[in-house]
Structure formats: C-alpha cells, structure tokens
Amino acid sequence: MTVCLYTCGNQYWYPCSLEMCKSLEATIKAYKIDTCWQWKPLLNGKEVMSILGMTQGGPSLGIAMDACFDYQLVHPEATKEQLKEFLTTHSKDILDEMYTF
C-alpha cells in the first residue's frame, strides 16, 4: 500500500503498510492526542501575558502560546493550574526563546 501526501501542491509518496497505519493510530490513541486538533487552550493570551509579565502581544505571545500547546500535547490530561506552574517555572526559557527570533 502507498500513501500520497500533498504539501504546498507538491506530491510526496511514502510506502506505508496497513499494519504501520494501525500501529500509528494505536500510538496516537495511547498518548491520548487523537483529538488534539479540537482542544481549546487551557490559558488564553491575556492569562499567558500576565504570567510571563508581558505588556503586549504580537509574535512573542504566539511563541508563548505555542509553548502552552506543546505542554498540552506532552501532558494531555494537564490542568490549567499545572500549565500555570509550567509557565512560571520555565518563564525565563520561554522569554529567552521569544527574544531570539
């Protein structure tokens, strides 16, 4: 079996077995990320800005929001409080990343 993936109008063909697809699906479900595209952010932009001490949004806020979503992907059962703790604990790293782009 072959799977065709389209990216920006280009075709990429990858050999893929049915067993491989089933294994991938099982892994996605095991990690509880099978509906991640439907997830709502645990924190909104204003909350993230407040935790990080930011005064305005823009690309920097986008980086911080990406960090929040990455956290949710790694911790699908995380609570809002756990994400706040993560942001507080790792604020220096997130802020450093913001200002190096």
General description of the model:
The chain is mostly helical and 101 residues long. The protein folds into two domains: 1-30, no CATH class; 33-101, no CATH class. It has helices at residues 18-30, 45-52, 59-74, 80-89, 91-98; strands at 2-7, 10-15. Strands 1-2 form a two-stranded antiparallel sheet. The longest helix is centred in the middle third of the chain and has 16 residues, at 59-74. The relative contact order is 0.12. The mean pLDDT is 84.
Low-confidence stretches: none
Helix content: 40-55%
Individual helix count: 5
Largest sheet, strands/sense/barrel:
2 strands, antiparallel
How much of the sequence is in beta strands?
5-15%
Structural class: mainly alpha
Compute the separation of the termini in Å.
41 Å
Number of strands: 2
Q: Strand order across the biggest sheet?
A: 1-2
Radius of gyration (Å): 18 Å
- Counted up, domains total 2
Q: What sort of overall outline do the alpha carbons produce when their principal axes are compared?
A: elongated
* Oligomeric state: single chain
The sequence of SSEs as H and E is EEHHHHH
Query: pLDDT average, as an integer?
Result: 84
